[in-house]
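Query form — protein protein O-GlcNAc transferase

QUESTION: What is the three-dimensional structure of this chain?
INPUT:
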Amino acid sequence: MSDFDPADFTAGLRLGLLPGLGGPAANPKTGSRPAVGLAALERQARTARDDPTALEALANAQFAAGQVMNAFGTWNRRIALGGVSAPVWARIGAAMERQEEYVQALRCLEQSLALEENPEVRHRMGRCLFKLGRVDEALACHRAAAEASDNLAAWLAVATIIPGAPSATPQDILTARTTFADKLAASPMANRMTCTPRPRAARDRLRIGYVSSWLEKPNYMRPTWALVNNHDRSAVEVHLFSDAKQGAAMPGYAPHPGDALHHTADLDNTALAEAISAADLDVLIDINAYSTPERLGMFTRAPAPVCLAWQNHFGPSGLQGFHGIIGDVVAVKPGEETGYTETVHRLPLSYLTFTVSHRAPPVADPPCLRAGHITFGSLCVMYKITPQVVDTWAEILRCVPGSRLLLANRTLESGENRDWLAQCFADRGIARDRLTLEGGAKHYDYLGNYDRMDLALDAFPYNGGTTTVEALWQGVPLLTFDGDRWAGRTSASLVMHTHLREFVAPSRAAMIAKAIDLATAPETPQRLKALRHGMRSMLTQAPVCDGKAMARAVEDLCRRLCAL
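ANSWER: The structure tokens for protein O-GlcNAc transferase are given below.
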């Protein structure tokens, strides 16, 4: 159940650093090198105001020093002189991207590519397009960069984002993942992976390990802790391999004296594989997947006797180190096993069964009771809002007069990005005054956005995961449909194991019809009120929150795989 941003994780794996924007980071936002001789460059630029080279050097130095607005001001002066080269346009675009100004970054990168084709610039353009939900276009950019450069970072980008590409088929996803995995296995890093798992020792208790880079993130780890906290410690010995900083809290985890916590942040993949081997595990369960690409190399071969993919895996990994993948009958339908490099193991309940232990705002009345109109909404990340999603949401708004749409995510903190999205809706006949577009916030405050929604709308083909759970927990029913791939069935896997199964439509068209019917039915406001205020008690009694059943199902699976 992940809303991690794949583009963030490919950002550090560039093809070849653009001049002036690489090397050690002095500023966490800019990610650029410390400036040298800034004062001298400022004097030079003042003396030679029309010198393009002086202005370019000053802008680079200002950005490296964290003087972001000054840098963009200097670049504007340089642009006004005309004759900007392709590398300079690319450098400005890269700086805009790092400031999360994706629309402006795209304009600069397009100028660069119009002058000169460059795989690095094409790769960056793909990242910006992805951030704006143009996943098919982003995929085309990354493929072009990969084919032109044969760089592992570009192949990784293709493999990472393809499950969310509307045009991609299950076979396309499998091919992209196996292509990347083959190239990763041939890389020098993977070739150093010489660790061989020990044969399973005879013992009464299963020894199960979990490897993750995100154990300190309570909102992402709800399924993890639902499973781990409910393991039968008389039958299971738990090992946690955590890439979080040593001493970091793990909210949601209920410590047990018999559990072993391994701090792995300072270990490379070879050392981590050796630590896993030394723990003498029976089963290793990975919950990173492509959200932590730097750990994928560890699974070019198996570091434990049985290695299973789970939680953040919603498609084939392509990696030979995984023996199986944990799903359910909703996520992976019978007959779809050929689309996976792993053996598919289906649990009898949602593979994302969860518990909520973090602080959350109380459930509020639906806003339609006082507003007199329905407000739809979504807090999913921007890269899930594809053109097809905008088409769908706009059709619903057109068919429900007076309705509104609330969207909030980090990408929309930028005014340019907001204007761009508003224009996408305007092109489909939806006026700006029917949209509320906002940025991110601290988690507790962010959850408060659900107080302003009557009904949540799911994204596709890459559903919400974290946002699906949060909408339900805050009392807001989520409308989704049975998609054409695992990534498009994540929400269905969750909702089908609750009392809200009627909110899972069989198709996109049926979801639109359901949204319109609900929004126009006179009894809906009172019905939503009753649903909201009974939601948490109903969820905690539903299979989707039965962590004990989840733990027993996974334990039974592990015993079968270990032939116990």
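ADDITIONAL NOTE: Residues 6-164 form a domain with the Serine Threonine Protein Phosphatase 5, Tetratricopeptide repeat fold (CATH 1.25.40.10).
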